Amino acid sequence: MRIPRSRSSLRATGLAAAAALVVGGTLSGCGSSGPGGSGDGEISVWVYQDPSTKVQRQVVERFNKTSKIKVKLTQVPGDGYSDKLRTSMGTPNAPDVFFNWGGGSISEFVKKDMLLDLGPAMKKDPSLKKGFIPSILDAGGINGKHYGIPMRGMQPVILFYNKDVFEKAGAQPPKSWNDIIKLIGTFKGKGVTPFVVAGTDPWTELMWVEYLVDRYGGAGVFKKIQSEGKDAWGDPAVLKTARTIKDLVGRGAFGKNYKSVNYTADGASTYFAKGKAAMHLMGSWEYANQKTNQPAFAKSGLGWTTFPSVPGGTGDPKNVVGNPTNYWSISGKLKGKKQQAAIDFVKFAAKQDYAKALIANGDVPTTSDASSLLNGHENPTYAKFQYDMVRDAPDFTLSWDQALPAKYTPPLHTNVQKLFNGQLSPTAFVDAMKGM
């Protein structure tokens, strides 16, 4: 299971002051430096330590064979990554290149002019920009400028369904909102929860809000919220979304016990795999989660489709929400040969052999030419569905709890959870969002 920043109730949602952290092993070039810093003949690169880190270790080893300035890779344990990065930036121990989530995760660094604007590098080498799916590349930017180069797989939110449950009910995957409403009645009549949702982990409920706001008002609604702040929550699409959530809860779309269901302990996924729920709106990592914990279901029982349009909505039904990918960003303090080495490294990590390594790791790369490589994926059908979905999306909205500054995550989660639990009316939900 892959859970990005703000994707686990076990992980701190705020960015508190960092405690002493144990940093993982390093792959060093020549030179010496203090913790996290870099020597004269090297650049320091930080990466979030998880099973995917092996792909970054491999690319560092290949790069160091080609460059006079070497990369020193520091693997930072996942639960401490955001804290360590925040407290290190602006100090001599700050990384020269670092892993991040784009959006709100780097907004404070951009405000303080700590990051390198990659626009000039892309202008100098157009292939760097053309090498990635545009919506993915744009999601790593701030105010129209590029501060990140994609470096891991895509993670869109997908509407998964249980093939066996659908077959027993004689039902087809939904293609419209009217289908959604009909399916709620169909599965309730069969004693099956229409949609599992992990109510103890409100970020899972947020996915519904994100897609509905997009479908009602388009991607511009959230972009306006990002740029204009509190009053922009008053957009009609937000109220329509809140009313739709209330309607879904009232219809029993999420069953009766969703408030006590979890995701981080595999509660929702197991419930879904065992046929107690028909559908599950979740990030693309759900496939890997099911493969690990319910492999038979992942192999033959798991289906997937897109989130439908809504009546009267003006949003493009091809739009996607979720976590576009992770990014490399470069420190603005770098100059001369070290800056060029950092740019060369992120370009090196955009080559086809890196994409192949991601695919071998079970990821779906965000490069514009990855489609031709996906037959090498462990599940080519699923990989191609994801890739086509994202490639064809006019806009890919980053999950709100990652796109907004970290201070907004706790009230955002609380308000969404209260909406689902009936503790906030639709109008009160809008007012609460305006008050964040």
Automatic annotation (TrEMBL):
Coiled-coil ranges per UniProt: none
Alphabetical list of Pfam families matching this protein: SBP_bac_1
Organism: Streptomyces himastatinicus ATCC 53653
Protein name as annotated: Putative extracellular sugar-binding protein
PANTHER family, per the entry: ARABINOSE-BINDING PROTEIN-RELATED, BLR3389 PROTEIN
Alphabetized SUPFAM superfamilies for the sequence: Periplasmic binding protein-like II (SSF53850)
TM regions (residue ranges): none
